[in-house]
Each structure stands twice: as structure tokens, then as C-alpha cells.
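Just scan my protein:

. . .
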Amino acid sequence: MSEISDLLERFRRGPELLAMVLTGVFGEEEDFVAAPGKWSIRQIIAHLADSEMVCAQRMRQIVAEEQPTLMAFDQEAWTRNLDYARRKPKQSLESFRRVRGENYELLKELPESAYARTGNHSERGPITLRFQLELLAEHAESHARQMQAIREEYKKAKGKK
């Protein structure tokens, strides 16, 4: 399997990984914050759903346009102003799953040469489609680990072993 194929498989599995971590999460656990200034599981999954939409746009720009400008976004402002504290985790997960699935269908059909195409990120500078794919695969995985750690902290806080 090629490096791109491996990345695509990690990317494709993101929703499954998140769904496994979220199994059984409800009530207080959705909103538990392990430390001041940290995000809850509810906020993390809303962030993932919105980030996937932003990155869907970026990837399409890289594929379709020559050297497009890819705008950064303020994730803290999105968390506050898009009311992540009230978003429904199941809906956020479904949104993430749907957009990730559409992104995967687009990406899996591209020739390997397309992954060298670049866009100019407003904060990071030039990035390739391959780099964007790698970031997104890691994004779901790292937040899944973060949510698992929050679940463990929640159990400790509630005195459950």
C-alpha cells in the first residue's frame, strides 16, 4: 500500500474512531471539563464537525485552483460564537461523518500526483494536499485520544473506577 493509501485509510476511519470513543457518553459527561479553559467532549466534537467543513473547502480549492489562498479561522471564536457548548454531540458526529465521507470519496479518486498540489495558508504558508490530508487524519485521532482522556478524568471525578 502506498503512503497516500495509508493516509486515506486513516482519514476514512476517523468517524469510526470517534464513534467508538463517544459510545455511552451522555448527560454530565458530555459537558465535563477536565480543567479550566479546556474543552468538553461536546465542544470537541462540534469543533471537529466545523473543522471538517472548513477543510473540505480548502482541499477543493487546492485540487481545483492554482495556488489558492486558504484562510485560517479562529477556533476559539468559533467555539464561543457558534455555541459549541449547546451543540448536540450526535448531530455533530453525524455532520463530521457525512462531510468526511464526501471528502474521502473525492480524495480516493485523485491521482497520486494531485497530492503535490499546493495552496497558500494564511498562517502556515504553502501546504500540499498531502499535508492537509495528513493533518486531518491526525486531527480526528488526536481529538479521539483527548476525548478518551476526558472520559477517564470524568470517571475519576465521579469516583468510578
User: Anything to note?
Assistant: The helical segments are 3-22, 28-31, 41-64, 75-81, 89-108, 129-157.
